[in-house]
Amino acid sequence: MDTFLLLLAPALAATINAGTPLMLAAFGLLVNEKAGVLNLGAEGMMLLAAISGFAVTVGTGSATLGFIAGALGGMAAAAFFAVMVLWLNTNQYATGLALSIFGAGLSAFVGIPYTGISLKSTSMAIPVLSKIPFVGPVLFNHHPMVYIALVLCATLAWFLNHSRTGLVLRAAGESPESAHALGYNVRMIRLAAILFGGACCGLAGAYLALVYTPLWQEGMTAGKGWIALALTTFACWKPWRVVAGALLFGGVTILQLNLQGLGVAVPSQIMAMLPYVATIVVLALISRNPDWIRLNIPASLGKNFNPNSA
Fold this sequence. Notes:
Layout: H1 2-34, H2 42-60, H3 63-87, H4 92-110, E1 124-125, H5 135-139, E2 141-142, H6 144-162, H7 164-174, H8 176-181, H9 186-212, H10 224-234, H11 239-261, H12 268-272, H13 274-287, H14 290-296
Antiparallel strand pairs: 1-2
Helix pairs in contact: 1-6, 1-9, 1-10, 1-11, 2-3, 2-4, 2-9, 2-10, 3-4, 3-9, 6-7, 6-11, 7-9, 10-11, 10-13, 11-13
């Protein structure tokens, strides 16, 4: 039994590590969608943030500045998306896809000089707690961003459900016409939500490049932005469910690595598919109950709002 726990603890710790970037990105996308905006550009924002954070960290030696640069990089990409969909009224789906493709291409070009450079991975062992058998290595020996993600979850849950500003943001996603009639600036509310989403995707991208890998590689997100998008639906737009979903998909990712390490006779390509197969299966199961989604999905999700025609 002791041997089993010794093997299980690193796997659970790795699951939390793998789920953190999914959590961070999904929190930002959830706020976007609560405001009525569907941004399919998460993958591009994460890649731009990853190379921004990595380049700044390599240049300055400071991971803190790297995370700040990642958040700002994600916000800059999100600001471009916001101008297009909020002021120029472009299609949200097409603009998000364009942002994703643009971010992948630009990050690959900018990242050429940084290919092959690696950073030292960092974690923060919490005194006393990290020494607790089994629980300590699993929960209390992670990078500070892991704990920031959990605090962000609790903050978002309170903000969306118990604060006046959160209720106004949800109103902009449910019925922007009604919110506008009550005197709220729907365009600026959605802008703030989009920028927050960009910052969260930026932190997720920076986490991949600075902690999870830690190195720069073209296309290193490997579809995690799309999984984060799926997480918002899986979680029915509830922050605490995002955490559960992120850990589930993170666990599937770690499972494939552990199976490869144990020499399981399954083609590596099949095991690499596991996180994405799990995503499809979960979404298919959820889609079997459309009433459940209809009760939770923001009513105006993906629909542009022009205050001049309201």
